């Protein structure tokens, strides 16, 4: 298996020797309702995910309150097309006073909870709440002071790499390691909302792992669970997707979020994908041995007397597989048998004169 060490997150081992660590990202899908946020907590726990993640940010910590073209989202394909950044973030952020009740309820349910800090003071709040790890979002991967402060806590650091060049990733990894923190997991991410499967490029996962010698997972914005299951088969140790109660309820991230039953399927199917990788095996795995009898082999099909010649009529390739391999038929045809053989006898070399 892998040479990377396991990383412990809230008592759970994360690594290639374990099923993927599944994170449900609440993001702004609480729709500015604490009651809905708590419903999301309950639904996440019931779905079987391993962790719930928040975003700890404030509009002023993210951007400037300026209404000029540079502060508008101008991508027609974006679900937030035409929105002002400051106003969008006012709608999307999770109020800081909600964090404690959310953390408390997750802890009661045995659900790991942590967050993505988007400003230095957010780490102070999350430290007060004893967050077990930190997530650095793709857009913040270039914020090295933020990475350094999160890494300095000594807790595991999960960093998304959407849009990042190899140099960007190297800078972020070095910033974390410079604080003495080697517990780093990188996430392959496509920063498009939603992203298509063709944009996912999950082949990057093993390449990233080899390049940096770190665990690599997936932060996914595609629809469905096919892409994360493919990532699990490629060695992704962490899978993060956005989570909502019902897409039809709307919300800033609802269009590319999974509903509870879909997350339950993701937990189950990603573990199956991980388990299916196994190791390189030829000649039949142990579990296949009992099926060998159903392979074809050479059998006496019609009774032959001692001294008679084997022909296509009295020697056939049939099931079960206890006789000589079919590849020997050309050698055996025309040879004489050295004893009487009844129909149904598995052909052996000792029957040839």
TrEMBL record:
* Gene Ontology biological-process annotations: carbohydrate biosynthetic process
Taxonomy, superkingdom: Bacteria
InterPro entries associated with the record: AFP_Neu5c_C_sf, Aldolase_TIM, PseI-like, PseI/NeuA/B-like_N, Pseudaminic_synth_PseI, SAF, SAF_AFP_Neu5Ac, SAF_PseI/NeuA/NeuB
| CDD domains per the UniProt record, alphabetical | SAF_NeuB_like
Q: Which UniProt keywords apply?
A: Transferase
Per its UniProt record, what SUPFAM superfamilies does this chain match? Answer: AFP III-like domain (SSF51269), Aldolase (SSF51569)
- Enzyme nomenclature, EC number: 2.5.1.97
Recorded GO molecular functions are: N-acylneuraminate-9-phosphate synthase activity
What is the protein name stated in its UniProt record?
Pseudaminic acid synthase
- In which organism is this protein found? Vreelandella rituensis
Gene designation: pseI
């Amino acid at each position: 298996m892998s040479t990377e060490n396991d990383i412990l997150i809230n008592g759970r081992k994360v690594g290639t020797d374990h099923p993927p660590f599944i994170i449900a990202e609440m993001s702004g899908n609480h729709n500015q309702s604490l009651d809905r946020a708590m419903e999301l907590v309950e639904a996440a726990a019931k779905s079987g995910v391993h962790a719930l993640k928040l975003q700890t940010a404030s509009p002023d910590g993210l951007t400037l309150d300026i209404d000029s073209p540079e502060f508008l989202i101008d991508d027609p394909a974006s679900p937030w097309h035409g929105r002002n950044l400051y106003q969008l973030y006012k709608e999307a952020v999770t109020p800081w006073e909600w964090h404690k009740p959310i953390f408390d309820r997750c802890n009661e349910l045995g659900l790991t909870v942590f967050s993505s800090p988007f400003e230095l003071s957010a780490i102070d709040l999350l430290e007060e709440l004893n967050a077990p790890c930190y997530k650095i979002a793709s857009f913040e991967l270039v914020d090295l002071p933020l990475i350094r402060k999160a890494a300095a806590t000594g807790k595991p650091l999960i960093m998304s790499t959407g849009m990042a060049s190899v140099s960007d990733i190297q800078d972020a990894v070095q910033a974390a390691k410079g604080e003495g923190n080697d517990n780093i997991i990188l996430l392959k991410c496509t920063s498009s909302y939603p992203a298509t499967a063709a944009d996912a490029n999950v082949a990057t996962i093993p390449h990233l792992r080899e390049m940096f010698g770190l665990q690599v997972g997936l932060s996914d914005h595609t629809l469905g669970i096919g892409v994360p299951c493919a990532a699990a088969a490629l060695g992704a140790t962490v899978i993060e997707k956005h989570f909502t109660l019902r897409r039809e309820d709307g919300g800033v991230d609802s269009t590319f979020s999974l509903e509870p039953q879909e997350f339950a399927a993701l937990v189950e199917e990603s573990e199956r994908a991980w388990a299916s990788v196994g190791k390189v095996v030829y000649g039949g795995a142990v579990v296949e041995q009992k099926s060998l009898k159903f392979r074809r082999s050479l059998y006496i099909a019609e009774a032959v007397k001692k001294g008679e010649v084997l022909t296509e009529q009295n020697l056939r390739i049939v099931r079960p597989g206890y006789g000589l391999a079919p590849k020997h038929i050309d050698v055996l045809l025309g040879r004489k048998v050295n004893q009487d053989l009844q129909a149904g006898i598995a052909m052996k070399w000792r029957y040839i004169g």
